[in-house]
Design goal:
The structure is a single chain. This protein has 180 residues and is of the alpha+beta class. The protein folds into 3 domains: 1-55, no CATH class; 87-116, no CATH class; 117-180. Helices cover 49% and strands 10% of the residues. The chain has helices spanning 22-36, 89-96, 101-116, 118-138, 144-153, 156-162, 168-179, and strands spanning 8-12, 15-20, 41-44, 49-51. The chain has a 4-stranded antiparallel beta sheet with strand order 2-1-3-4. α2 packs across α3 (101-116) and α4 packs antiparallel against α7. The two termini are 14 Å apart.
Amino acid sequence: MSDAAPHLSAFAAGRLIASGPPAATVAAARAHRAASGETIVFFDDVAGRVVDIDERDRPEAAPSDCGDAPRGRGRPKLGVVAREVTLLPRHWDWLAAQPGGASVALRKLVEAARRDGAEADRIRRAREAAYRFMTALAGDRPGYEAAIRALFAGDGPGLEAATCGWPGDLTRHIRSLLER
């Protein structure tokens, strides 16, 4: 998950139409589609996914104010969520022997893993976002397979060579996703 602000990019026929906050991007794409009739593809740059946007002028549905919703397990005011964890008996024994018990030990292990692997996780998420973008908007272009291999091999020059015949907006957006 990411705490980054929502950021959309809109493409039509391999060209970047708009990029930025969702409301501004959708408005620009709507205007472009009205003028050109082209199909617009929206891409969530933070989540790394193609998203369906309802561009019609419709009022948003009002959220429900039902206060009778059943409460979940855990301590929601603290952001604690109870879930099942399956471990071997020796793991449970080790966790039980830790100061503060299993929950404290698991939280410390998770935080240490997040901290130690932050850069590798960032690179993995950027590559996955670029992969999803390339698959959705360039999967039928020449050099696509070579570009994917170069992407996951971390071969920047190979990726650039494989995408050299693609529209400039696509290659620039791939680079921006990888730099994010």
